[in-house]
Amino acid sequence: MFSKTLSRNITKVVSAQRDYKVAVLGASGGIGQSLALLLKLDSKVTELSLFDVVRTPGVAADLSHIPSRAVVKGYVGSEQVEQALAGCDVVVIPAGVPRKPGMTRDDLFNVNANIVKELAEASAKACPNACFLIISNPVNSTVPIFAQVLKKHGVYNPKRLFGVTTLDISRANTFVGAYPGMAGVNVPVIGGHAGTTILPLLSQVPGNKVFEADIPALTNRIQFGGDEVVKAKEGTGSATLSMAYAGHFFTSRLLSALSGEQNVIECAFVENNLTESEFFSTPVRLGKNGVEEVLPFGKLSAYEQEIFDKMLPDLKAQVKKGLEFVK
Predict the structure, then answer these.
(1) One of 42, 52, 193, 227 is an active-site residue; which one?
(2) Quick check: is 227 catalytic?
(3) 201 close to 297: Cβ distance less than 8 angstroms
(4) Residue 103 — very low, low, confident or very high, per pLDDT cuts 50/70/90?
């Protein structure tokens, strides 16, 4: 009796959920495979479309043996990218070359810029109304590239294009959460997604007296946490598992908002006019249209204001680099 009732209840819950098709572009890479696994396990995902230039059918076959709602399909090669994108509600893009020791995010630009541009062209044709979540570095430049391509095709919607900066928040929460009484903290992180353009607002964290003396060191560690991982992996890769976690976290939160959940607020690198930079990461309220409201980031401490003033010209230059690449 209990098993039959439970079965009926599960069926009701599943049937009440919206169906979402999510694509991962770059699904065979270090981030892509882990991200695809997490999305396969997400109950909000009904269809998971995986694309890469190599090995995607194998990744899809492997994931398809996991029991969950999501039906997995793999597509390989540039001739199949539009097929992979057709009908997608959300497209997550970790595609590109990872950082190696000694490389800055800017060093990645020449390779990854072309990859993102080609994927944007395909997305504009195959699923122009989807929400696009850009993970490919350097995000400060690749998001403007994606925007410019969509504009060229006449399908750009600033409410549906996001640079995923969630890993910066994840690092901030982890590092601050290690202090006594700070577990479960949520640190807003604004600016960009590269080095000194990353600005954690530690002054806004309740109870920050516990780590007040360490704010400069904490800020630096949050800004350059990626270097910590690259060094620890001894040249074999960059942050893949933590980035996959962050990518899934933001995607899942967006899907919840698209489904009608209220008051979903996350930081993301989006187009806005809060600063002189055309794109800027700030808290945004997510909803059925994507970005429902761009929220102000609040008052900065004197230390944060100093970082802000120094980093803004760099951020503007990195955004401009992406815009001019397409032009």
Answers:
(1) 193
(2) no
(3) yes
(4) low
